[in-house]
């Protein structure tokens, strides 16, 4: 018996076995000028998923409630911060150029932490896919969560699968109109709540919602709330499975993450085939447990037949498992004809071996080690991060200024970042320039050092001048470093630059002569 392909992903639009030899696609042929032509695109067939009940459906409802709860509650969580910083626990503050996550405050200079989080998310998806297939797509993806919510509204107004099919076929009357209008109105309310709440992650949520309904919020808040309302309504209400099949790249990428030991929603053909109708009282000898009822197809939100193997449209939502288990109970056969399983386990059972789930594999070790390593780097960086940072910019026009004393002077601008929530006294010194003299505009210099006040949670700019005798320098361009030290706690920061004491073109002339 030939097993269906489960690792090579297929789509419903690919050629069938009988048609492949003639190069005929499963789309309708049309005659143009007497010649048979294939349609480039197959018209979408409306999918009416049937309501199912069982463990996996209940799990999806529970996760939906948890994810939506997190989405709608998190913007209103408070975290007290000193000064004028917003008290929102999670906030992408574009206006203040900050990212806040509880006690963590990320500055624009530290954007690599956000990049690290995105990389961790990607590797986490790789690891989850290698272990459990497309578990993200079936249970946690926002497209899945909101589509489930929209389908629940659809069930409420229009009924189950057969009722919705009949309603769409019947002529417009009052009953059909109020059901359709009611459904779309609730969809719009959910979409608006989705878009509005997403904007709340970028503004102080209580203030935003007060201003939003008083038409005092920033224009960007209305623009992005409208865009997200429209995309939620179209994606979850109309396009649904087409987003997963045609727009999302993950179904294609995940094929590289799977192997024959990855758990996926699987039709156990070793037990189900040969399939066919079954009447009560008939023997089960010489046949499989599948009675070809197609309830797994009716329950599938993508409208596919899981018995054809793993396909690009399958998001591993596991609803076909509940639908099949319900039928197995009715025909008095064991549950689990469709279940989370691996190709290797099917082959092991056919060979008379005991099935097992192999977690430790090459790819899972690689993804796991990479995840742990990057997490360790980010955590160590957060724990060791300094509240003091400095950058320096040297004036380039002119490169230096000759003084009447025979010295030359270079000008520098220091930008000191004080991440602490209090004003700090900072001592600025330098090293690398022999017999250099430090000067500053309207700031006294003592022992060739200056002391400045750096305000809390801000960048302080300091203008400095450094002069020295060019004859006493080792080279016409000297590497040097500015040192900034917090007087109270001793925290330091450093910025490297150069001190130019002569025209660099003369250096080139001298080298040419040598």
UniProtKB/TrEMBL annotation:
<dbReference type="Pfam" id="PF12801">
    <property type="entry name" value="Fer4_5"/>
</dbReference>
<keyword id="KW-0411">Iron-sulfur</keyword>
<keyword id="KW-0249">Electron transport</keyword>
<dbReference type="InterPro" id="IPR017896">
    <property type="entry name" value="4Fe4S_Fe-S-bd"/>
</dbReference>
<dbReference type="InterPro" id="IPR051684">
    <property type="entry name" value="Electron_Trans/Redox"/>
</dbReference>
<keyword id="KW-0472">Membrane</keyword>
<dbReference type="InterPro" id="IPR032879">
    <property type="entry name" value="FixG_C"/>
</dbReference>
<keyword id="KW-0479">Metal-binding</keyword>
<keyword id="KW-0813">Transport</keyword>
<feature type="transmembrane region" description="Helical">
    <location>
        <begin position="111"/>
        <end position="132"/>
    </location>
</feature>
<protein>
    <submittedName>
        <fullName>Ferredoxin</fullName>
    </submittedName>
</protein>
<feature type="transmembrane region" description="Helical">
    <location>
        <begin position="364"/>
        <end position="384"/>
    </location>
</feature>
<feature type="transmembrane region" description="Helical">
    <location>
        <begin position="61"/>
        <end position="79"/>
    </location>
</feature>
<feature type="transmembrane region" description="Helical">
    <location>
        <begin position="215"/>
        <end position="236"/>
    </location>
</feature>
<keyword id="KW-0812">Transmembrane</keyword>
<dbReference type="InterPro" id="IPR017900">
    <property type="entry name" value="4Fe4S_Fe_S_CS"/>
</dbReference>
<keyword id="KW-1133">Transmembrane helix</keyword>
<keyword id="KW-0004">4Fe-4S</keyword>
<feature type="domain" description="4Fe-4S ferredoxin-type">
    <location>
        <begin position="280"/>
        <end position="309"/>
    </location>
</feature>
<feature type="transmembrane region" description="Helical">
    <location>
        <begin position="185"/>
        <end position="203"/>
    </location>
</feature>
<dbReference type="Pfam" id="PF13746">
    <property type="entry name" value="Fer4_18"/>
</dbReference>
<dbReference type="InterPro" id="IPR013783">
    <property type="entry name" value="Ig-like_fold"/>
</dbReference>
<dbReference type="InterPro" id="IPR014116">
    <property type="entry name" value="Cyt_c_oxidase_cbb3_FixG"/>
</dbReference>
<keyword id="KW-0408">Iron</keyword>
<dbReference type="Pfam" id="PF11614">
    <property type="entry name" value="FixG_C"/>
</dbReference>
């Amino acid at each position: 018996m030939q097993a269906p392909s489960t690792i090579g992903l297929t789509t419903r639009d690919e050629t069938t076995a009988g048609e492949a030899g003639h190069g005929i696609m499963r789309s309708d042929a049309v005659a143009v000028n007497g010649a048979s032509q294939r349609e480039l695109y197959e018209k979408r067939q409306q999918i009416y998923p049937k309501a199912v009940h069982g463990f996996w459906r209940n799990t999806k409802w529970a996760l939906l409630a948890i994810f939506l709860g997190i989405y709608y509650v998190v913007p209103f969580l408070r975290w007290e911060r000193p000064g004028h910083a917003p008290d929102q626990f999670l906030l992408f503050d574009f206006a203040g150029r900050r990212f806040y996550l509880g006690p963590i405050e990320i500055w624009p200079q530290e954007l690599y932490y956000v990049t690290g989080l995105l990389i961790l998310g990607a590797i986490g998806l790789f690891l989850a896919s290698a272990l459990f297939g497309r578990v993200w797509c079936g249970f946690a993806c926002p497209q899945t969560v909101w589509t489930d919510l929209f389908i629940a509204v659809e069930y409420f107004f229009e009924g189950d699968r057969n009722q919705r099919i009949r309603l769409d076929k019947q002529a417009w009357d009052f009953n059909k109109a109020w059901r359709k209008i009611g459904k779309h109105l609730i969809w719009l309310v959910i979409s608006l709540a989705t878009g509005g709440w997403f904007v709340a992650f970028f503004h102080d949520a209580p203030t935003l919602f007060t201003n939003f309904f008083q038409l005092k919020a920033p224009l960007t808040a209305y623009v992005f709330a409208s865009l997200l309302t429209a995309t939620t309504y179209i994606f979850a209400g109309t396009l649904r499975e087409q987003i997963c099949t045609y727009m999302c790249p993950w179904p294609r990428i995940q094929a590289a993450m799977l192997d024959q030991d990855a758990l996926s929603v699987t039709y156990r053909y070793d037990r189900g085939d040969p399939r066919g109708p079954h009447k009560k009282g008939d023997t089960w000898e010489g046949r499989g447990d599948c009675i070809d009822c197609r309830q797994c197809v009716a329950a599938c939100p993508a409208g596919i037949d899981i018995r054809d193997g793993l396909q690009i449209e399958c998001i591993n939502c596991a609803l076909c498992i509940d639908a099949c288990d319900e039928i197995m109970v009715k025909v008095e056969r064991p549950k689990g004809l469709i279940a989370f399983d691996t190709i290797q386990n099917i082959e092991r059972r056919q060979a008379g071996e005991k099935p097992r789930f192999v977690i430790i594999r090459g790819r899972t070790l690689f993804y796991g080690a990479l995840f742990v390593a990057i997490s360790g780097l980010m955590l160590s960086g957060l724990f060791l991060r300094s509240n003091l940072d400095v950058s320096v910019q040297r004036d380039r026009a002119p490169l230096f200024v000759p003084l009447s004393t025979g010295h030359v002077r270079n000008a520098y601008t220091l930008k000191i970042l004080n991440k602490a929530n209090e004003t700090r006294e900072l001592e600025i010194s330098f090293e690398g320039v022999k017999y250099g003299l430090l000067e500053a505009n309207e700031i006294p210099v003592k022992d060739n050092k200056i002391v400045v006040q750096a305000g809390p949670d801000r960048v302080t700019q300091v203008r400095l001048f450094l002069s020295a005798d060019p004859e006493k320098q080792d080279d016409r361009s000297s590497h040097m470093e500015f040192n900034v030290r917090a007087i109270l706690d001793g925290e330091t920061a450093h910025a490297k630059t150069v001190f130019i004491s002569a025209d660099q073109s003369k250096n080139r002339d001298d080298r040419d002569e040598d």
